[in-house]
Specification:
Strand order of the largest sheet: 5-4-3-10-9-8-7-6
Distance between the termini: 37 Å
Radius of gyration: 30 Å
Helix content: 25-40%
CATH topology of the largest domain: TIM Barrel
Largest sheet: 8 strands, parallel
Strand content: 15-25%
CATH superfamily of the largest domain: Aldolase class I
Number of domains: 2
Structural class: alpha/beta
CATH class of the largest domain: Alpha Beta
Number of strands: 12
């Protein structure tokens, strides 16, 4: 059974707890704090557990040449990559404002710390958990420092190998027991053949003592729902107010109707997964009572006769008799009263059997 832990105050994940659903706003807010608030409210209204952003301290995430390089792509918000990223980056006070709004709305709030200084700020902000984006998953000094903060962690695994993820697990585990790993493929939008959901089951084998989840960038919700059916305990999906907006993440994001349907479908699948214990359920009794088969005498069997298999058959019978699966247990036992041809063989008429026999009725 995967480890369970408290990811957010009062909210456990793992084991048989409900899947934790993260609405990844990221930087789909277009640099507009009022749009960001609308997206937080959308996440709450659609039933997500958490609204998540991406926080960078740009001079710590990028070197100067990376920030100064020209950026003329169709999704650009500036002439250089630095201008583009600064347009989309909320400052500390704005993050505090968003956190306060999320609390008022009633949804958990956090962000991916995209560099070590961003993690320091989020730690001061007292977010419930840290999210490690795929770009920092193989950044082992970052992982170690983040793990030592003591907050729960969720680590995406896009662009990584299984061997790297083994190192990630070992590094984080040494300092922090409360973390989860997400299967992720870093492509936007993600084609179905590149999703590789079977990695979820491989992670469950490799890391049986932590929850495993899924961070998806595909179109639609079917694949994310399938991840939950495979045992994902966390699902993270990008959200947007408009898929046509400028920005590379919008096309792979969910609008409100899709997010609401994703939440509904995940909760439905969770109900359908059940306990894993196979037994006849109370809801099946009407069908069994109507169509369940039991043992019937193929010929008349007179009192005292020792039963042989050729005397018996299996039918839907009235009244119900010995359950079909016990037919072989009747062989070699005597009947204590006559049983007519085509009549039910009930436990009471079989010597030394009736007290412990199973009967359809």
């Amino acid at each position: 059974m995967p480890l369970k832990f408290e990811l957010c105050p009062g909210r456990m994940i793992g084991a048989n707890y409900p899947c934790f659903i993260i609405a990844e706003i990221g930087q789909n807010h277009q640099g507009d704090i009022e749009l960001a608030k609308k997206m937080i409210k959308m996440a709450k209204d659609c039933g997500a557990d958490c609204a998540k952003f991406q926080k960078s301290e740009l001079e710590h995430k990028f070197n100067k040449r990376a920030l100064d390089r020209p950026y003329k792509a169709k999704h650009s918000w500036g002439d250089t990559y630095g201008e583009h990223k600064r347009h989309l980056e909320f400052n500390h006070e704005q993050y505090k404002e968003l956190q306060k709004y999320a609390k008022e709305v009633g949804i958990f709030f956090t962000a991916s710390g995209m560099d070590e200084m961003a993690v320091e700020f989020l730690h001061e902000l007292n977010v419930p958990f840290f999210k490690v984006g795929s770009g920092d998953t193989n950044n082992f000094p970052y992982l170690e420092k983040t793990a030592k903060k003591g907050r729960p962690m969720i680590v995406s695994s896009g662009m990584q190998s299984l061997e790297t993820m083994r190192r990630v697990y070992k590094t984080v585990k040494e300092h922090n027991e409360n973390f989860a790993i997400l299967q992720c493929t870093s492509a936007y939008p993600l084609e179905p053949e590149d999703v590789n959901l079977r990695v979820i089951t491989e992670y469950q084998k490799e890391f049986p003592d932590i929850p495993i989840g899924y961070s998806g960038h595909e179109s639609g919700i079917s694949i994310s729902v399938a991840a939950v059916a495979l045992g994902a305990k966390i699902v993270e999906r990008h959200i947007t107010l408009d898929k046509t907006w400028k920005g590379s993440d919008h096309a792979a994001s969910l609008v409100a109707s899709e997010l609401a349907e994703l939440v509904r479908s995940i909760r439905l699948v969770e109900r359908a997964l059940g306990s894993g214990l196979k037994k006849m359920l109370p809801c099946e009794k009407p069908c069994r009572d109507k169509l369940g088969k039991s043992v019937v005498a193929k010929v008349k069997i007179t009192k005292g006769t020792v039963i042989s298999l050729d005397m018996l058959t299996v039918k839907v019978a009235e009244p119900m008799g010995v359950v079909a699966e016990d037919i072989f247990q009747l062989v070699g036992k005597a009947v204590t009263e006559d049983v007519g041809e085509d009549e039910s063989v009930t436990p009471e008429v079989v010597d030394s059997y009736g007290k412990k026999a199973k009967c359809c009725g």
